[in-house]
């Protein structure tokens, strides 16, 4: 039953991703409505899957890479809906859902067995630390999508090709403002995730920092986004530069999330 809801959510996200790509070429309001309906249905099914895994395991469903990637994907769709409702960003789903589907697909090929979390890590800090980290990463993911939208729109402006897709994309100013707002949400969440992780580590290992590869790369990611916000606020790096940095920053997030576990030895399961 748990797997069934996951597979159904994956199918909905796949359909939404395909419709999003078609929407870029066609620009049909009907396709847009169906795409959003599929995203909403997929999110509901995905939420049921996450909840059922919590019920079965009796713990937050992030004990494996499958669960962690799935929860990250769920968080991204949540942030997507918040931005969609707050700003009504035209075509945002077309730029976010292909990435959502790829993440969900990667989760589907990972081992899905439900396993208990090491008793050492069973603490209320688990909920606090990981929720902050996942939501922060999700905000950076949507900022990346907004950044790509900005770069596409900026290319249209420079080439003076002002028809079709250009008219359906939000203005450069709107995209830049949303990108900034997402960064100012993601950065405090990541900051709090690192702080709560350090407090949790001190309780478990007696030290706030162990120079674990996941900790190091989380710090590198934090420093990068701190730099992005600094140069934006104090050096006027708006627009294209900020969009490019948002894309690079999320690449760092993905390496921290996947690369460390695949290439380096870490105490973190995810």
From TrEMBL:
The chain crosses the membrane at residues 6-26, 38-56, 62-83, 95-114, 126-152, 178-201, 216-233, 245-264. The keyword Membrane applies. It is a multi-pass membrane protein. InterPro entries: Cyt_c_assembly (IPR002541), Cyt_c_biogenesis_CcmC (IPR003557), Cyt_c_biogenesis_CcsA (IPR017562), Cyt_c_biogenesis_CcsA/CcmC (IPR045062). Residues 65-268 form the Cytochrome c assembly protein domain. The keyword Thylakoid applies. It is found in: Membrane. It holds the Pfam family Cytochrom_C_asm. Keywords: Cytochrome c-type biogenesis, Membrane, Thylakoid, Transmembrane, Transmembrane helix. Belongs to the CcmC/CycZ/HelC family. PANTHER family: CYTOCHROME B_B6 PROTEIN-RELATED (PTHR30071:SF1), HEME EXPORTER PROTEIN C (PTHR30071). Required for the export of heme to the periplasm for the biogenesis of c-type cytochromes. This is Heme exporter protein C. It comes from Candidatus Magnetobacterium casense. The lineage of its organism: Bacteria, Pseudomonadati, Nitrospirota, Thermodesulfovibrionia, Thermodesulfovibrionales.
